[in-house]
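Q: How would the structure tokens look for this protein?
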Amino acid sequence: MSEAYSPVPELNLLREFEDRLGPVFYSEGFELSAYDGDAGLHTWSQDPAFLGRFIPFAKANGSGSDYALWRCDDRAELATLPVVFVGDEGDLYVIARDLGELFQLLALDREPASEGFPGPGEAEEHSAGHAEFVAWLETTFGLGPAKDPEALRHARADLDDRFRAWARPFTDAVDD
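A: Here is the predicted structure in token form.
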């Protein structure tokens, strides 16, 4: 019996899906990494009160950006925590209100851009495992690709404002 990837059941299911799929991408630039590993957050602040509020879990693109859960409170259901984009080009913001929303954004099969994901236009070519991921997402969680990423961006705006207000005392690099 193998050891669980994380204490988050939704991430464990995604890890199992990845393992079954093999070494192919299912969403542009996304790849699970070491749970609670290094996401370069120490470059933003060395303060333990800052660093201790993040749980890194995945690569967001091929150039060094990551995803982390933000422990905005002490809730037990970690999958319901906001997901933060830790950008390799100076971006730090809430990209999804929870893991389910991130999974829907990943189903667009595009790398995140500044402040979120591009719209649902036609992708020129999907990742090799994209169709399997979309089917898995529907079967496992009853979710499909985000229909309107811009609406999701607006829906998470208050949460992102709260995140930026919290992070600002730790780092002056967080934009208003």
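The chain has one domain: 9-167.

Residues 7 and 75 are 13 Å apart (CA to CA).

Upvote if useful.
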